[in-house]
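User: These chains co-purify. Model them together.
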Amino acid sequence: MFKFDVLAEDFIGILMVVPKTLLLAILILFLSTLLGGVIALIQQYRIPVVAQIVKVFTSFLRGTPAVVLLYLMYYALPQIAHLLLKIVGIEFNPHDLNPVVVVIVTFSLTMSAFQSEIIRGAFMSVSEGQIEAAHSLGYNFLQTLSRVIMPQALMEALPDFLNSYMVIIKALSLAFLITVVDIFAQAKIMGAMSFRYLEAFVAAALIYWLISAILTALINRYELRLRKAY
Amino acid sequence: MNKKWGFITLAGLLFLGACSDGEASTDEDGVRTLTVAVPPTSKPLSWEENGKLTGYEPDILRLVDEKLEDYEFDLVGVADSAAEIGLDTGKYDMIAQGLFKSEERAEKYLLPDENNGASLMRIYKRNDSDDIENMKDLVGKKIVPTTPTGGVFNFIMDWNENNPDHEIEFQTSDAGLSYADRMREVESGKYDALILPSNLGQNEIIESQDMQIVTTEPVEVFPTYFMIYKNEENEALRDDISEALAELKEEGKLSELSLKYYGEDVFQFTE
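Assistant: Joint model of the two components:
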């Protein structure tokens, strides 16, 4: 009842969309980390008004399921883009907004709330003494950040970033709601072609697992190399 | 290997569970009570209101029940795939879910000779899209994405296979956005056309939301049938139901119900 030739066929078919999924996820990770970094800085230095707004913003993002935000963005983002571009004088048809853009914006926003916490935690892990020592040696703010804080914070944050990356890859299975085909969506399509869903889903599970195993091994080695330096 | 045995055990348990459930019972008068599964939330096909199953299929079943003296129908609300699995195992004696005939179904179940309805595949478009009348006109148009697990997907795939000169490009998406929103996307110009069977209550949506959406003539007609659990005893039941349905058609009762629930007589397309 379980056909292994169908499984092999599905496996290869799903592999075709793996690069696209990974690329989309890395882009989202990059954007959300950037945004998360800004959020962490704002909260760290308690910039008046902005810090309060950011607090409400992150609490909303952390408390709302990604699927709900995806629906909201699907309706709202084209209109927002239309309005914003109109202000700068560019005529933009809201129907032309690529759903991939909606996916990238939505997941970058949701993940930024979590990324900001990871970054904050990592910076806090660098002890005050280290920073004082750097200052006493005459390091300025940027030198302290790039030579003392960053290397140590990155080491702390790396496993969490990998975790975020896996979360994004898995969350992308929601993107099919608005026609963006990822690993799981491809599995559904392959299943529909052969009328055999079990094989397609097993193939998808194997591929997810494979990706996570390879990534974990790579990051572990990188982390060890970073730690060796100290 | 372990996995395989796990599956077999699980399948076996499910099968045993299903078997132990109610079989058709016969009382002293020789009247056999049949369990018939209809959809619980598919307005206007069949839905539950104030604890009572109403809709197109339940109304037809009641009319058929009246005609058949030896049988009594007991209606239960069960959603699509669960109903079909229940019919496979004999949990239900019959299901009425607006299903159309396929080779696989004709082999697995007993189907009456007479259809009791029809699923009309139609194109929904803006009322100023005069250039869209049939499937051929959809070449190069933007079509609302369809779910890969649905009948519309198979319908378009079949069309493309049989009409390589008029291949229709379309995207797939997960089910999630409602038909109302999909029609709104056609209305706003995001898409040009939506392909959908017309028995899902769209007319109600178009009317209540006052949408500028019109439909084409059916691009394909799928007659729908009751499906009966296959065994020797039920062969007589199938013949009785075929006869009852033929009579009801003759009397115009089925057309009446079709008009009542769908606003049109679907039987004009299946004669």
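Chain A touches chain B through 14 residues (CB under 8 Å).
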